[in-house]
Design a protein that fits this description.
By secondary structure, the chain is α/β, with parallel strands linked by helices. Helix content is 47%, strand content 15%. The chain has helices at 13-28, 49-54, 71-89, 101-112, 132-143, 152-160, 173-188, 191-195, 210-213, 216-231, 242-251, 266-274, 284-292, 307-311, 322-330, 349-362; strands at 4-10, 32-38, 62-63, 93-97, 117-120, 146-149, 167-169, 203-206, 236-239, 259-261, 278-281, 297-299, 315-317. The strands form two sheets. A seven-stranded parallel beta sheet has the order 3-2-1-4-5-6-7, with helices on both faces. Helix 7 (173-188) crosses helix 12. The protein is globular, with a radius of gyration of 20 Å. The two termini are 15 Å apart. It binds uridine-diphosphate-N-acetylglucosamine. Uridine-diphosphate-N-acetylglucosamine (UD1) is lined by residues 12-14, 41-44, 47, 68, 99-101, 132-133, 208, 241-243, 246. Uridine-diphosphate-N-acetylglucosamine binds next to helix 1, helix 5 and helix 11.
């Protein structure tokens, strides 16, 4: 049997959640040899290794040890180091995930070597080119051979940009991950006891987007609003991203009354989201997970890529408006619309993706 070598390039926390269902799926197929290349964009134990362990992702075949730096430095180093591995391994496919600098670097390195590129989570748009993620996904989509879209909206976005070939709407691999792990989280996670929280009685917050952390006015406004929420008697829990921690310290932003903790591993985070009264976030993935779990979400941004979550009433874009944030954290308007998770597939996106690779072998 001919073997197909597929090289996945990952580097940042959300990509580990996205690759996990594909690792399971690729392992089932004898025709696939799956290589994992880790750029080490995220390198702290609790931003990286803990996800490989808890999601049972095989150890990476390559660690590129790029680490942090400016966008140009980080992306440039990644392109150089990924290229070296791809020249040595010559995979039939390179797979990149989401919208980080690791995604763009992987796609650029592969396409210049004429190795076909598949983009998982293609077609997402915020229509805000001020976000590094928007630039990464725009460029990646336009040089990818195969575009795996999580939703119909994503497919329409691609078509509007003149991309008509290689598109497959397969559903969302993050939904696959959530469905696979939710029961495990409910059975094994002790995070509520550990943090002494009552179900449906706390706000869970994540903040890490550059547009918020690197703008002192926005960061202060968000943390002011969060402190106001605690005055309403609602505990506020914040698993804090290292980028945000550094900025809060640098700017001496007051964080009294807020329960700031280290970043959490996936199962703990899932359970904490499921049992939250409300989620407040500027992350893309967390908006979606809240929606899958039917927990109301306040998004600390002006726009979202995940429009379905807003259209169904489960997500409100409050930006940094203190009044709105506090009001909706206390009383979230009842989502009147039908749930709509089917817009994100049925938890079998990884299966559909591997079927596309299988077909490509026979063409
Ligand atoms: C990156 C992605 C973002 C994604 C996020 C998930 C880009 C442009 N952004 O943002 O889309 O939502 O990952 O977390 O790729 N740091 C550590 N330890 C780590 C990792 C980072 O201390 O393990 C600190 C470093 O000081 C670094 C800063 O966080 O400079 C930012 O890290 P970086 O990977 O550049 O971007 P993220 O903010 O994590």
């Amino acid at each position: 049997m001919t073997l197909m070598k597929i090289a996945s390039i990952v580097g940042a926390r959300p990509q580990f959640i996205k690759i996990a269902p594909l690792c399971r799926e690729f392992k089932r197929h004898k025709f696939i040899k799956h290589l994992i290349i880790h750029t080490d964009q995220h390198y702290d134990y609790n931003m990286s290794k803990v996800f490989f362990d808890s999601l049972e992702i095989p150890q990476p075949d390559y660690h590129l040890e790029v680490g942090s730096g400016t966008h140009g430095y980080q992306t440039g180093e990644m392109i150089k180091r990924v290229e070296k591995v791809l020249i040595k391994e010559r995979p039939e496919w390179t797979v990149v995930y989401g919208d980080t600098n690791s995604t763009l670097a992987g796609a650029v390195a592969a396409v210049k070597l004429k190795i076909p590129v598949a983009h998982v989570e293609a077609g997402l748009r915020s229509f805000n080119k001020g976000m590094p993620e928007e630039i990464n996904r725009l460029l990646t989509d336009h040089i990818s051979d195969v575009l795996f879209c999580p939703t119909e909206t994503a497919m329409r976005n691609l078509k509007q940009e003149g991309i008509n070939q290689g598109i497959h709407v397969v559903g969302d691999v993050m939904y696959d991950s959530l469905l696979y792990n939710l029961q495990l989280a409910e059975r094994h996670s002790l995070i509520l006891e550990k943090l002494q929280l009552d179900p449906k009685n706390y706000a869970l917050v994540t903040v890490h987007r550059a547009e918020n952390t690197d703008n002192p006015d926005r960061l202060r406004a968000i943390f002011n609003a969060l402190r106001k929420i605690t005055q309403e008697g609602i505990p506020v829990i914040i698993p804090l991203h290292p980028r945000t921690r550094k900025q809060l310290e640098l700017l001496k932003v007051p964080v009294d009354r807020l329960q700031i903790i280290e970043p959490l591993q996936y199962l703990d985070m899932l359970l904490l989201q499921k049992q939250a009264k409300i989620v407040l976030t500027d992350s893309g993935g967390i908006q979606k997970e809240a929606f899958f779990l039917q927990v109301p979400c306040i998004t600390l941004r002006r726009e979202t890529e995940w429009v379905e979550t807003v259209e169904t009433g489960w997500n409100i874009l409050a930006d940094i408006d203190e009044k709105k944030i506090v009001l909706y954290a206390r009383d979230f308007p009842d989502p009147s619309h039908n749930v709509g998770q089917e817009a994100f597939g049925n938890g079998r996106a990884a299966e559909k993706i591997s079927a596309v690779f299988y077909q490509s072998m026979n063409n």
